[in-house]
C-alpha cells in the first residue's frame, strides 16, 4: 500500500494539501466555504461572548449595589438608634453592625476604616477588616471618593485573592457610615463575580463547540452539494479529453433538464458536428487521393504515346532545321520530366493511401550504396564531382526493402551532385548492433536554417529557377522521408550555407525495431572537428529528422 504510507507521513501533508488544492475543485470549494463560514462564526461568537459578558456584569453590578445599599442602611439605622457612649459599647455596636451587614449582604468580605483627619478619640474603635489576603484591593481613588462624599455609593472592579491564592474577579462597593461618639467610618463590602465568570465560561465553551460543529457541518454539506455539481463536470472533462485525443465516438450522458444536461447536450452536439466534419474531410481527402492516383494512371497511356512520338522526333532532330531540332530536344526532356513527375505522384499517392507494402530482405547496405553511386557516376563526371565511398565495415546487413533504399540513396547522391558545385561527394556507411546509417556529404552551396526546415516538404525547392540536370520534381526528399519512416528509420539533415550539406539515413537492422541512436554523427565529423568540438553530438539535435 504505497499510497497509504505516503499519506501517513506528516511531512508529506503540506505537499499533498497543495496538490489537492491545485487539482481538486471540490477540495478548493469545500475549504473556502468552511474557512469563510468559520470566520463568520468566529465574529458572531466573539460578539455574543462580549455582549453576554457585559450583560452578566451589569446585572451582577446592579444586584451588588442594591445589596450593599440595603446592608449599609441597615447598619446605619442600627447606629442611629443606639445610645452607646463608651469604647466597649461602640465596639460592640460595630461588631453587631458587621454581623448585620454580613447577614444582609451575603458577603463575608467587609472592611470598616475610620475616615482619616478626625479628632483622635479614645472611644473610637480601630479599623477592622475581613478582607484577609485581598486587603490591598481597595484602591486610593475609591477611598478618596468615599471619604469625600457622605451618603453616596462608589464601586470598583477588583481582582480578589481566593483560596490557594487564585485570583477571582470581584467588585468592591464603598460608602460612609456615621458611628455615634466615634465619628465617620468608611464601609467597604467586596462581592465575588465567580458565578458570573463561570456562567460566561460555560457560554463561551458552548459557543466554541457549536461553532466547530457548525463549520464541520457546513464543510460536509458543501462537500455533498459540490459533489453533485463536480461529478458531471468531471465526466465532461474526461469525455472532452478523450475526444481531444481522437476518440470521436465518446459522448456525455444526457440526464434531466438542468444546466448540466444543457452542457451535456451542447457538448454532444459539438462532438457530433466535429465527427461529421472530420468524416467529410476524410472522405474528401480520400477522394482527392484517389483523384491524384487516377489522374496519374490515366495520364500514363497518352504520355507513353507522346513519348514514343517524341523519341522518333528526337532521333531525327539532326535532319530538322535548327529551330525545329531544338524543339524536338525540348519536347524530349520535358516529356522525361513529366514521366518522372507522374511516377513520383503515383508513389506518394500510394503512401497517402497507406497502401505501401515493404518487400524486405537482408541487404548489404554497402553494395546498395555502391550501386547507387555507379548509377550516378556519369552525372558526377559531367558536374566534375568526385564520388567517394567510406565504409569501415561492421554489421552492414539490414532487413530493408532494397528497391526503396536504393531510390533514397540515388535521390540523396543525385541532390548532392546537383548542389555540390563540382566538389567531392562523400558517401559514408557505418553500423552498430542495432542500426545501419548512410550519410551523403557534399561541400556545395548548403542551405540556411529556414530552408532546412522545408527541405522535406512536397514540391519545395530552395531555388526553383536553378538549372537542373536530373529530376527536379520537388518530391524526391518527401518520398525519401516516407521511405525512411516506413522502415521505422530516420532521415535527417545538417546543412550550412557555403559549407555544404549532410543527409543521414539511419535504419534499424531488424524489421520493426525502434531506433535509439545512429552509428554516424550529425553534423558530420569534419564540421565538428573544424569547430574544435570533439564530444558526442546529440542524436536528434542536428536538424530535421523523421
Ligand atoms: P528536387 O531535387 O527534385 O528539387 P528534392 O525533394 O530532392 O527535390 O529536394 C528539394 C530541394 O531541397 C531541392 O530543390 C534543393 O533546393 C534542396 N536540396 C536538396 N538536397 C540538397 C543539397 N544536397 N544541397 C543543397 N540543397 C539541397
Keywords:
five-stranded mixed beta sheet, 546 residues, five-stranded antiparallel beta sheet, Heat Shock Protein 90, binds adenosine-5'-diphosphate, alpha+beta, Beta-Lactamase, single chain, Helix Hairpins
Fold blueprint:
Layout: H1 2-8, H2 13-23, H3 25-80, H4 87-105, E1 109-114, E2 128-129, H5 140-148, E3 154-161, E4 167-179, E5 183-192, H6 194-244, H7 259-315, H8 322-352, E6 361-364, H9 365-375, H10 377-383, E7 387-390, E8 397-400, H11 402-418, E9 425-431, E10 435-442, H12 449-452, H13 476-486, E11 490-496, E12 500-508, H14 525-531
Describe what you observe in this structure.
This protein is 55% helix and 15% strand. It has 546 residues and is α+β, with helices and mostly antiparallel strands. α3 (25-80) runs antiparallel to α6 (194-244), α8 packs parallel to α13 (476-486) and α9 (365-375) packs across α11 (402-418). Residues 534-546 have low confidence and may be disordered. Residues 411, 415-416, 419, 442, 444-445, 447, 455, 460-462, 471-474, 476-478, 501 line the site of adenosine-5'-diphosphate (ADP). Adenosine-5'-diphosphate is lined by residues 411, 415-416, 419, 442, 444-445, 447, 455, 460-462, 471-474, 476-478, 501.
What is the structure about, briefly put?
The chain has 546 residues and is α+β, with helices and mostly antiparallel strands.
